[in-house]
Amino acid sequence: MQSTSHFDLNALPMGVMIYDPAECLLAWNDQMTRFYPVIAPWLTVGATLESLAEKFIDAGYNIDPGRRQTLREAIIRNCRQASHREVRHSGKRRLYVQHQRLADGGIASLHTDITELDEAQRSRHQLHDDFLLTAESIQIGIWDWQVSHDSLQVNDTLLAMVGQSRVQLHYPLRFLLNLVHEADRTTLRQAMIASKQDHMPVFECEIRVQHPTQGWRWMLISGQVVTLTIQQQAERVIGTLQDIYPPQGGRAAGD
């Protein structure tokens, strides 16, 4: 690593390359050679942006020779922009790359390894899918409400529990509220508000839901405000709906 300042670039978790106003390499850190082993021999003070663009192609692209010049020009053009972001692959790594023009006309290029982030997202999606599958198998309704767009998604189990057929993918919230006993709507709203104000992880309450052929049925609705706006208002609320008839409190469905 070379550096023109007293700051240790190796203290940074991302790869760093700094070019002077003439687009010649001034400094870089060891992360660059770890992320792009192929370019290590060419990382020298004074190496030009154009020459290193060729090496980045060798490091991360399997491309037809006829398209190599076009890709080289694109890499250089992106680096020269006032601000540019892209995602690259290098071996098994997935890297988030940022190029930024500096006040003196030079270029700072930052390379962040996001491979583990992708894996975490895949694991999260798999966990979500497993949860939905489990919920379906034990007859638990799932709902997900995007507040600002008034977009409610529900699974097929929830629709079956309330005796409805699927006619669309997204519903307005009133689709569900209209099925709730009028006396229980206030209770539900109060539970949601309390969960946000008191920072409770989950809200829940027993409500009566009208089934078209079975009449009023007691159900337990649980939910969590998972996203807030800047104004601290609920933006996304997710939860479950479970059939508890007869009610846990021993009440009749018509009470």
UniProtKB/TrEMBL annotation:
<protein>
    <submittedName>
        <fullName>Putative diguanylate cyclase</fullName>
    </submittedName>
</protein>
<dbReference type="InterPro" id="IPR013655">
    <property type="entry name" value="PAS_fold_3"/>
</dbReference>
<dbReference type="InterPro" id="IPR035965">
    <property type="entry name" value="PAS-like_dom_sf"/>
</dbReference>
<dbReference type="Pfam" id="PF12860">
    <property type="entry name" value="PAS_7"/>
</dbReference>
<dbReference type="Pfam" id="PF08447">
    <property type="entry name" value="PAS_3"/>
</dbReference>
<dbReference type="InterPro" id="IPR001610">
    <property type="entry name" value="PAC"/>
</dbReference>
<feature type="domain" description="PAS fold-3">
    <location>
        <begin position="153"/>
        <end position="240"/>
    </location>
</feature>
<dbReference type="InterPro" id="IPR000014">
    <property type="entry name" value="PAS"/>
</dbReference>
